[in-house]
Amino acid sequence: MMNEKRLENTSIHYWINDIKVGSAIVFIHPAFANHTCFDTQLDDFKEYRVITIDLIGHGKSIGKGTIEDTALYINKMMEAEKIDKINLVGVSIGALLAQDFANKYPSKVSSLTCIGGYDINHFDVTLQKDNSKQQIKMMMKAMFSIKAFAEDNKKISAYTKEAQEKFYQMNLEFKKSSFRYLATLNQLVNKYQTQKREYPLLIGVGEYDHDMAKKASMIWHESEPYSEYVEFSGAGHIVNMDTPEQFNKVLKRVIR
User: What is the gyration radius of the CA atoms in the chain, in angstroms?
Assistant: First the structure.
């Protein structure tokens, strides 16, 4: 059972199970989604202390706050729940935010799993150019119709019909006003130098994810020789929703 909580003095809502001891996992969702995108992970990881969150501007976390403060929010959650170290699992922008936490609180990380992300500490912005026009087009579509945006975004993000439908429903709940929360994500990029990691790093990407994501993931893996790289067959950008059994099996190798 997942218990809903609100982080004191913030707009952040999070969910935590009833496990009081042992390894803890924090799942961080993609943009335009919410904590329920990890529903297919809950049963397989029920023996761990599991936390899922709604990022600021998503789900129930609407109000004051900035997305670049996500690491601070997670640290406050850990203090509130008396958790010393966590296994971080981020998908898409969740992968960027997970890295930011690892940059700021490295001693509190047991493992780091980043799916469909890139190295925020050494990102070549020219890689983004190929997708810029598409992103602008999608943003403009969202300003006119969230439904039209959600229809297109589900096809870009998910590969299986089941995952597409669930992601579509989450996208419908995303508010136009919440785009402002995403505008400051670039403040996390190329801000830190990567230190020696004292924990496992898993870099993953879906077989059918877009070329930029696959290229960026491979470049990152090659720059960190002790990382593990996995391409998930039959999956798009949101691997955990497209192929949950495969994803869960791989993730269990990393959790400490």
Answer: 17
- pLDDT one-digit tens code per residue, 157-206: 999 999 999 999 999 999 999 999 998 998 999 999 999 999 999 999 99
Quickly tell me which residue has 């935010």 as its tokens: 97
Domain tally, the chain: 1
Q: Which residues contact 119 (CB under 8 A, 6 or more apart)?
A: 99, 194, 216, 219, 220, 223, 224
Q: At what angle do helices 161-172 and 146-157 cross, to 10 degrees?
A: 150
CATH of the domain at 149: 3.40.50.1820
Neighbours of 5 (CB within 10 A): 16
d(CA 184, CA 197): 26
Contacts of 31 (CB under 8 A, 6+ apart): 55, 58, 92, 93, 182
Range of the domain at 204: 3-254
